[in-house]
Amino acid sequence: MEAIREKDAPVVVGLDPNLSFIPGQLMKEAREEAAAEGRTLSGMECAAEAIWRFNKGVIDAVCDIVPAVKPQSAMYEQFGIPGLMTYEKTVRYAQEKGLIVIADVKRGDIGSTSAAYAAAHLGRTVIEGVAEKSFDADFATVNPYLGTDGIKPFVDACNACDKGIFVLVKTSNPSSGEFQDVRTEDGRPVYELVAEKVREWGSLSMDGRYSNVGAVVGATYPAQGEALRRLMPEIFILAPGYGAQGASAADLLHFFDENGEGCIVNSSRGILAAWQKEAYAAYGEKDWAGAARAAAQAMIEDLRGALRDRTQR
User: Exposed, middle or buried, 241 (CB in 10 Å: 0-12/13-18/19+)?
Assistant: First the structure.
């Protein structure tokens, strides 16, 4: 919240690099530099190195205007061990640049497995009596499908290591309603029951105005977002779905509290692939990082304007 206030930007940049977003020059540079050192990169290694260069450029371009980034682990895992190494370097570099890192890992399993996931992404792993860090992000996204058994280890890690989680409540994808919108016998949607559990879990890790236990609520469902804000007054919301998925700043107004706080909005493709869009064509392929910064700034201004208009009304 302090970082959002300082930059006046409730925005998180999703670092979900798809190879279709990566300028071809970065793959070429990776191969040529390896060859100059007498090394031959495999396809996986080349892709991972190109993504690292891309991420570094985006982070450098936006670190002074946004408070956080959100790397999606699957986009790195698909490139095997080289991809995971790029994921780890991305987390470390973003933190070095003063950014909060939300690890979009969507983990959640039975208790012992969740404890291992929590140790890997937020907490510590004890080896011969020494507690060591692994990926060590600041927040992680968590799937609540297994109930309290799967969530409690993450809450424990939040309390032990001053970390946070975002629990999936109402996701932004079109088919989310297949389960999340199902009505119980008393007519309530499942996502409301999950929200009540999130509030319960959140009470175990309060940290000022809001809990360390947050919620993922898709910006593509503004009516549900408004209802969930009322149901979870102490829960910070991570809202994906702005831009490429169709949500606007106006859709997000009720995700914020009466002070215009309590929510951070994600954009991934809209920023990472900005250089491919007509609106940012002037930047060209060589200045993909400049296009990313311009797109992030436009998003920030859009949200600022909508929140300002709401306050004035």
Answer: buried
